Amino acid sequence: xxxxxxxxxxxxxxxxxxxxxxxxxxxxxxxxxxxxxxxxxxxxxxxxxxxxxxxxxxxxxxxxxxxxxxxxxxxxxxxxxxxxxxxxxxxxxxxxxxxxxxxxxxxxxxxxxxxxxxxxxxxxxxxxxxxxxxxxxxxxxxxxxxxxxxxxxxxxxxxxxxxxxxxxxxxxxxxxxxxxxxxxxxxxxxxxxxxxxxxxxxxxxxxxxxxxxxxxxxxxxxxxxxxxxxxxxxxxxxxxxxxxxxxxxxxxxxxxxxxxxxxxx
Amino acid sequence: xxxxxxxxxxxxxxxxxxxxxxxxxxxxxxxxxxxxxxxxxxxxxxxxxxxxxxxxxxxxxxxxxxxxxxxxxxxxxxxxxxxxxxxxxxxxxxxxxxxxxxxxxxxxxxxxxxxxxxxxxxxxxxxxxxxxxxxxxxxxxxxxxxxxxxxxxxxxxxxxxxxxxxxxxxxxxxxxxxxxxxxxxxxxxxxxxxxxxxxxxxxxxxxxxxxxxxxxxxxxxxxxxxxxxxxxxxxxxxxxxxxxxxxxxxxxxxxxxxxxxx
Lengths: 265, 262
Description:
The structure holds two protein chains of two kinds. By secondary structure, chain A is an all-alpha fold. Chain A is built from twelve helices and two strands; from the N terminus they run ββαααααααααααα. The longest helix of chain A is centred in the middle third of the chain and has 30 residues, at 103-132. By secondary structure, chain B is mainly α. Helices cover 74% and strands 0% of the residues of chain B. Chain B is built from 13 helices and no strands. Chain B has helices at residues 2-19, 23-47, 59-84, 87-93, 96-101, 106-112, 120-138, 143-169, 178-188, 200-209, 212-215, 217-223, 229-255. Chain B is globular and about 60 Å long. Classes of the chains: A mainly alpha, B mainly alpha.
């Protein structure tokens, strides 16, 4: 059986080695998990100032939304451009390129392994949140959970492909991680990490849904928290973005490898 | 003392020369800066829909806080981040040895070696926002409120520097403190909003434990002429304590430095 042209054995080896590697950095990963507290800071502002009222959102609904946004972010965080830049500048990329395995799959595996390592910390933070806000406790139904899981994976895929697009620019410029900022800034404000998109004025909302960013946090978080959301169109948009991005990354990568000059080694 | 000023001048002029090579970077930073500012002001405006206020701050005075935040963020990008995130590399590669051997204070050397000029527009823009939006409320500045503003900005910067340095210095033991600075950055983002807008527990934490209030809210109150004298006094004490602690901590950390590789 092969998935994306990779044998099952290869996938298993990749994932287990990366997982073993990640387990070494548990404290670091715990700190990464903690660094996602922004939705909680925003929640404290929203509830303290009773802002939700102006947008027809209850405190409990907001609590659930922001916790969901936190969780979705935990499992869709991407850092491929930073690893790739380091590997490219230090010459480590050269042996990777010689192997009969697309180097990007190695990064995919390390991201997935990191998410598995993150899981216990994310759960611990969620439990702490429920202890502090007991009234907001809820358990999503199984179909809800499944759809949220699926859409979070799609969100991760879109984020990964977007950053790979920037990473591929490493073949042209030495500092492509600086370009990542240009993706991160709109992501921060349009993804729904700071406010649910339903609070946006309609003209900003119209613009936002044309970008891939709302489907990275807002859409999965709404499913998970049980807010009303157009599930069909959301998944459609996610799949559409993935099918646009995969060939783009592929083309840019092929063009880039031709220019590769094996820096460092 | 003169020697230190001369060293800074040399450091920063070489930094300028080397950064001229990366002009595209400068452009990207500029774009990112305007994007961030636009986004933050947009999010802030959501709190004011329906004519409400944010923790008894009006829209114009809340903008002053955004300005102070932008200013400090610029200083972080220009000075703190480029210098202090390097410490971990010196420790890992063992090149900290050379720094320690230099006939100049090592904390000074590590803190001012680099200067990223891409942070400069943010510093200027931040100050412009502060003055533009505070003039809407107070109509004119007195010498007194201006000097209190400058002192409270200094207090804020010293606290910010000390916290950054403490985390960076802990890389003597933990080689991967990059993540800890990310946690710090996430928490400092709380400074974009007035401290009175937070629940009581967070207000306490953000005033005395991680003094975010001293970074943005209090300087903004100072330029608006509302800062109470005892807060300024507390800020002077707190910032000196933070600075002294960072200094002692560095000396303590160096005792545990065992060098690497070589």
